[in-house]
Amino acid sequence: MKALPVLLALAVAGCGAAPSTPEPATAVRLTATLTTPIDIRLEWTGEEAGATGQIVEFATAPEGPWTILQFMPPEQRAYEHPDLMPQTPFHYRVRPLHGPASSEVDVRFTGVPYPEPANVDVAWADPRRLPGARAGGHPLRGGGAAAAPTDLKATVMTRDAVLFTWADNASDEAGYLVEVRPDGAAAWTVAMMVDPDVTSVGLTALPEERRASFRVRAYYHGASSNVAHRTTGLSR
Fold this sequence. Notes:
By secondary structure, the chain is mainly β.
C-alpha cells in the first residue's frame, strides 16, 4: 500500500545582512551528506520521549510542500535517498509520531472467489467518517490512552481487499495510521495513513499480508528535527 503524500508548509526566517534566527532546540538533530552527486544519506541523533514512530520528509523548497519518504520505528537513525534529480536542492526533516493504537484484529484471506474490485462498486473503500459516528472527546497529548481507537472491525470484501471500521475517541489527532504485522513478522509497519475523523477505510492486501494482524493508531506529530539541506550535482 502506498502512503498518501502529506503537504505541509514550513515557515523559514529570512536571511539578510542581519544574523539569522537560531533554530529552535529539538531532541532530534539531523545531518544530510552527499554520498554521490545524486545520492543523499541522512543520519540523526536523539529521540523524543514516548514516540511510537517517526517519519522522514523531504521538500525541494525550504517552505515545502513536504512529502513523506518513509514511516520508521523510533529506534531508526539513518535513511538513504538515492537516484535523485541532478542540480536540485533537497531539504529534509524528521518528525516523531505519538499516539495510542487500538487492539489488533486478525485478517485471513481464503481461496473463496470473492468478486474482483473491477466487477463491483468499491466506494466502500473510500476513507470516510461513518454516519452517526460520535465525535472523539479525549486529547492525545498528555498520554491519554482513552483516545485510542476502539471497536476495530475487519471485513473481507473481495479476494484481496478488507474494510476496516473503528470508533474515533481522539479530539486532536493529526490522522490515523493503519498498521500491519504479517504472520511470522516481528515488527509492525504502516500500511496506510488517513485523515483525522475518518472511521472507515478499505485496504488492498499485499501477498505477504493475506494472513496478518492489523491495528489502527491515532497519532500526532512531535517536535520536528532541524531542516538539513543538500543540492545534488552533475548535469552541467
